[in-house]
Amino acid sequence: MSYILVGLALLAMIVRPVAAETVLPRLVVIVDDMGNNLKQGVAAINLPGPVAYSVLPHTPHSVALAEMAYGQGKEVMLHAPMANTARLKLGPGGLTEDMTRQQLQSVLRSSIAAVPYVSGVNNHMGSLLTQKRQKMDWVMDVLAEQGLYFLDSKTTTKSMAWKSAYSQGIPWLVRDVFLDHEQTTEFVDKQFRYGLRLAREQGFAVLICHPYPVTIEYLKHALPRIGEQGIQLVSPGGFLLQQAEARRLVEAQQAERDICNQGEGLCEATLAHQDGSRRSKSE
């Protein structure tokens, strides 16, 4: 079952009866760890469709790859390094649990500024820092001021990141499937098929992968075929926009029902106004 935010999950259950015939199951694919290897990064960006690319800050090829992805109409994210329970080295732009608010936010702002065309952020590692609610609130403060969404890579089941984003009104989603923590075609295929099954079952699935040659070669052939299977590939930002539009539709329909519940005359007037609006738009 997906770890997608409670609000979106509940929304999906509400919206499906309204839009079941018009909304295809959606697949969101993000390629992490972009920036260190130019050849692998270029191969990943050349994947077909609206795949998103999460770029490590202050890496040798971060700017070039971000500009290339944006130039091809792809979505660019910041892959923000965060402290992990294994104490693995974070590299430049790392956010740690011993930072003050000013230090953490200064480093995060610098990382965002270092990667052009960023529209969202997800955590690189982070199994320790994402458990710290206060630190995540500090992260979300910066995202709120810069109008960015957050993708929780869900490197721990104890993550507080999505709760922090939700409480601050930050658009967010959560990873469902890691595609390639075993670098074999057989494993990538198994995980990708699992992602497709999740998309059909719950209406969407969020996949994270890396620019490994085996992964990119597999996706090069697999992604063009998902449309034939009735699944739509969308970017993270595109998915969040669709969900926001669906939420507005549900809220508008609820408002109409509330008006109708106040009296038959009000209901008839509302329907007549809607009918007139539709006619004027079609003329």
From TrEMBL:
Gene Ontology biological process terms, A to Z: carbohydrate metabolic process
A Pfam family hit: Polysacc_deac_2
Superkingdom, taxonomy of origin: Bacteria
InterPro entries: Divergent_DAC, Glyco_hydro/deAcase_b/a-brl
Gene3D superfamilies the record matches: Glycoside hydrolase/deacetylase
Signal peptide interval: none
Protein name: Divergent polysaccharide deacetylase family protein
Organism of this sequence: Amphritea japonica ATCC BAA-1530
